[in-house]
Amino acid sequence: MSLRQMEYLVAVVEEASFTRAAEALHVTQSALSHQIKALEREVGGPLLERMNRGVRLTAMGRAYFPHAELAVRSARQARRAALAAAGAESGELHIATVHGQAIGVLPEVCARWAREHPRVRLILHEYATTEELYDQMERGVADVAVGPRPKDWQGPVAVVGQEEMVLVVPHDDPLAARESVRLTDLAERPWVRCSLEPVVDGRLWLDLECERAGFAPRTAVRTQHSSTAIRMASAGVGVLLTAAHELRGLDCASVPTDPPWRRDITVFSRAELTGAAAEFTELLCAVRDA
Question: Can you tell me the distance from the alpha carbon of 193 to that of 205, in angstroms, rounded to the nearest whole number?
């Protein structure tokens, strides 16, 4: 089986269509179908189920696909790394991150990169949770990832800064005038909870810390996105715990926790950081230190 055949399979699955996959690959649909059938003959069974509306993986396909996907993405990543090591000043750099880092940490970095490296295009892959980010990086979706420190990561990890968690309240809330707030002061307060809350050792950080403080947080509303949660908290629905960098440009009051809680922001990869990946990491450090 060839890498090209695996690339064709990945394209069909990603596009959920032979027609769209052929267009994305710039080949005819008949040539694409021929290569998929050849791959299926080689592996010994059908990988795709053709339906009236699209295609889906068979049981054999679901077992085969993750390996094919990793091989295809690793080959693409190897090519980009080789070009970068050879001093190429063009191409793409794929960056994976979680939503909070994308809106709070990366805009200024990406703006400077566009000015300083106009021929190297950035491709951003955003994920809702750190677990999804780590899983996708294991599968080779990007050259580098920006996010909280991964646990038991086998590749290089570089700390590029820290993010501080703060409490969000309306401007007229009595807490807004405080220099800091202990969790024990919030036992009777309702909370705004978000599906993107930080997780520590498999548990939501807020649940863990409130338990240590002797109470369980009472949820007023639960949101899917941090931007929605921030607006809910600033309107007075409840107290929100979020990263301080997510509040840039927003009209709300924030108060540090006592004791303060911070976590590392890291850049991590499956391979050594070279070329454009190394330069992006250096730029991220410089922007965070400024």
Answer: 11
Q: What distances in angstroms separate CA 164 from CA 59, 60, 174, 219, 254, one per listed residue?
A: 45, 46, 21, 22, 11
Backbone angles phi, psi at 187, to 5 degrees: -60, -30
CA distances from 217 to 135, 201, 226, 240, 241 (A): 30, 19, 18, 11, 11
Cβ-based neighbour number of residue 182 at 10 Å:
11
What does the pLDDT read at residue 51? Answer: 81
pLDDT of residue 73: 81
Mark the ranges of the chain whose per-residue pLDDT is less than 70.
Answer: 1, 80-90, 289-290
DSSP conformation letters of 166-210: EEEE-TTSGGGG-S-B-GGGGTTSEEEEETT--EETTEEHHHHHH
Round to the nearest angstrom and report the end-to-end CA distance of the chain.
50
β-sheet bridge partners, residue 96:
125, 145
Quick count: other Cβ atoms within 10 Å of Cβ 172?
Answer: 9
Beta strands in the chain (DSSP E): 48-51, 54-57, 91-98, 120-127, 144-148, 157-169, 190-194, 199-200, 203-204, 218-223, 240-243, 253-256, 262-268
Left (φ > 0), alpha (ψ -120 to 50) or beta: where does 26 sit?
left
- Dihedral in degrees, nearest 10, Cα atoms 105, 106, 112, 115: -170
**Beta-ladder partners of 159:** 266
Which residue, 81, 223, 236, is CA-closest to 174?
A: 236
Burial bucket for residue 169 (CB in 10 Å: 0-12, 13-18, 19+): buried
CB 37 within 8 A of CB 9: no
- Pairing label, strands 91-98, 218-223: unpaired
pTM tops 0.85, yes or no: no
DSSP for 9-26 reads HHHHHHHTSHHHHHHHHT
